[in-house]
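Suppose a colleague, Dr. K., hands you the sequence of a protein chain of 180 amino acids and asks what its three-dimensional shape might be. Before reaching for any lab equipment, you can write down a predicted structure in token form. Begin with the sequence itself:
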Amino acid sequence: MALKSTIFKAELQIADMDRHYYRNHSLTIARHPSETDERMMVRLLAFALKAHDDLIFGKGLSTEDEPALWRKDLTGVIEQWIEVGQPDEKTLRKACGRASEVLVYAYGGRVTDIWWRQNRDGLERLGNLSIFDLPDTHSLAALAQRTMALRCTIQDGAVSLSDGTRHVGIEPIILKTATR
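The predicted structure, expressed as tokens, is then:
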């Protein structure tokens, strides 16, 4: 019998001073049985960084044709395709062909460094791809609760995520910026 996803609820209050975006989001997040709390919280962080009323979570690790998050226009055209972790070059080439903008939020410390060194040349050719390294994401897992009330502040590229008791600060490092 297959294990079912665990459902998490998050009330996310976002104050993004860089984009002048101030909004509350009530989110339901399905965590696949093989997904860690850290990865789920990185998906939530990616949502906060690119928050939009039309941004939704993909079906998860079990679905290869969907990203961690995506945003489509009213006609179904994919405007943003957002991956977390270290996706392979083939997946990203395919995503760049399907979406106007593709973003990767890589995490994992040395694993990300190795992934970037191995894939940099091929990924540099993808004009609508941006890649960010999220250092020190292990502490995000401590914020994971079945029901969460989180505040996210983004200023000058730095992210502060808090549940009122615990506070996590992350400064994404730009590895690649889209050229178109």
